[in-house]
Amino acid sequence: MKHLILKGMSGAVLGLMLATGAQAEESMFSSKSLTLKIATKAAQAALINCRDAGYQVAVAVVDRGGNAQVVLRDRFAGPHTVKTAMGKAWTAVSFRTGTSEMVGLIKSGEVPPTMSGIPEALFVGGGLPVRAAGSIVAGIGVSGAPGGSKDDACAQAGISAIEGDISF
Fold first, then answer.
1. Least confident of 20-24, 103-107, 127-131, 159-163
2. Taking Cα atoms as reference points, which of 71, 53, 54, 52 lies closest to residue 139?
3. CA separation for the pair 82, 65 (Å, rounded)
4. Domain limits of the chain?
5. Rg (CA), the chain
6. What CATH superfamily classification does 36-162 receive?
7. Strand 58-63 versus strand 68-73 pairing type
8. CA distance 134 to 163
9. Full-prediction pTM beyond 0.85?
10. Around Cβ 161, how many Cβ atoms within 10 Å?
């Protein structure tokens, strides 16, 4: 029956129907984000990893839009660490790249140094995007360990803690 109806339609009408259908599909998209429970699990794992290494830090997990989901601050972490962890997480999501990698890209000239003037962007190690099924679903930032590579390691521990909970 469908073939009979399509056979009787003019090419223009059929083309309009197909174009309208394609346009409707491209007008919307869906995305995934971490639940509060999983974001909290990642933040806690990162904080504990740093604490076990002897570092007092703050950890921030942001959703794929850069909005805060979880912020934890260990009791002796400096007052600047919360804002710094947020900046690192936001930057990792916004630029879809770890902040340590961004530092390297800026130093090599692959990314212009003017990027550092973008409000909220923070190009120091410790921020990582969280990926699941090929998409960025969150960002995690850690601040307070002695050096960006140690902040990176704690952030990675947070991601590793939730790998079984999200489809990688």
1. 20-24
2. 71
3. 18
4. 1-30, 36-162
5. 22
6. Haem-degrading domain (3.30.450.150)
7. antiparallel
8. 13
9. no
10. 18
